Amino acid sequence: MILYYLLLVMTRFHSDPRVSASLFATPILLVTPVKVVGLFAVLTALLFPPPAGAAPRLRTTQGVLFVLFAGLPVLETLASGLPTPSSSISSLVSFVFLMVATRRLVRTEERMFKTVRVMVLASALASLWIYKQYFLQHLDRPGGLEQDPNYEALTLVIGIPLAIWMARREIGRAWRLIGAGCAGLVGIGVVLTESRAGLIALAVMGLLSLVFGRRRLPILALLGAAAILVAEFAPASLSGRFRSIRISGAPTNGDDASARIHFELFKAGISMIASKPITGVGLSQFKSVAPEYNPNILRLTGQSYIAHDTYIQIAAEGGLPAFALFLALMGLAMVNCSAVRRHGVGALADLGLAMQLGLVAYGIAAASVTAEYVSTLWLIIFLSPNLRDLSAAGAAQERYLGSAPSGGETPAALRIAAGGTQNCPSTLHMPGKQARTAQTADRSHSAEHLTAFCARGSVPMEKEVY
Length: 466
Prior knowledge:
Elements: H1 2-12, H2 17-20, E1 24-25, E2 30-31, H3 33-47, H4 62-79, H5 86-105, H6 109-136, H7 149-169, H8 173-193, H9 196-212, H10 216-233, H11 238-243, H12 254-275, H13 286-293, H14 296-301, H15 310-343, H16 346-365, H17 375-402, H18 412-415, H19 432-458
Antiparallel strand pairs: 1-2
Helix pairs in contact: 1-3, 1-6, 3-5, 4-5, 4-15, 5-17, 6-7, 6-8, 7-8, 7-9, 7-16, 9-10, 9-16, 12-13, 12-15, 15-16, 15-17, 16-17, 17-19
């Protein structure tokens, strides 16, 4: 798992020149350190047996959907004789490695929770670039590690629910404090970017957590405290950015011009979709052909841009089939997380809600930034079937216990096969680390019982789909 956790950190820091440096180039992609680590992580996942107590895998179409989403636009672009989209292909290959490694390795609660820890810590560490640029370099709108304020804000806002989950659900007090600190660090970082899309997504995410959360009073108090902090410490120019949203007339300032450009790019994208609804204009081609579909872009700014809208960018470049596949992947992840939130128990149920909120935040902010290759989004998508597997294993275990003979003694290992120290009296009063150790040891004895129960038909075993 060390290679996998290293892959998660390097994926978050992919924009750093030391991580994204090209080791060598092939005709269709660039080989970077991230891809090398990803390849070794996949080989490790394929060669080594599943971990002790791994949850049975349910059937999923995620692998097929992602391969189609990644492959169809690439093939269409190459078949059209357009320039090879090396950058896009490189990103998609990295995500294939991440998908395979995640699906095969993150199969126990302990590994799931450690994966969330690594994601949160990496996000908090990356947010320090914003503080450096704002307080030391005195940039008005720091772009952070991603070198773009909107892109950085979107990347950060997706991970905030996971940090809050750590602050509420981690076993050890130290990890809960770390989660709370990371949530505050990342949240303030989003405010410092002054990203309108990021802040709107953050506000909607807070309201949804109030609606669907199980403890509404603490959530309401947290939202109130966050609002006070934003009002007190937000940059003075933040409110002016929201007042400068105009889509007609001559631009009067930079924020006004940005809103106008977004609108003209939207019209260009719609024209591309209408012109080539099946194949699209080709990967990485939006910027070069946008003025052909809307001359107002050059008249307004003298240059062209990418779509600044993830949905328009995907549909215009890859066609409506690619757009439908992207929505299907997002929808499947939402369904998985929703099932865990509604039917899971304890920390897993809350983690399902946290991932759902992250997906919603992305869905909102992605309408004003081109961000189809945000690593945090794809990691949540790839984790969602694993989270469903763990939750289903817990449900199967409950049914197994319910079908135990009257008066029979149920081994403690079976009581915690689905995870959670609350299900095992022998670990209730143990310190967090000892409880986790006891769970791992007991799961190794219970795995064969749970797998046999699932094989009888209560939970369908998964056919390998990659």
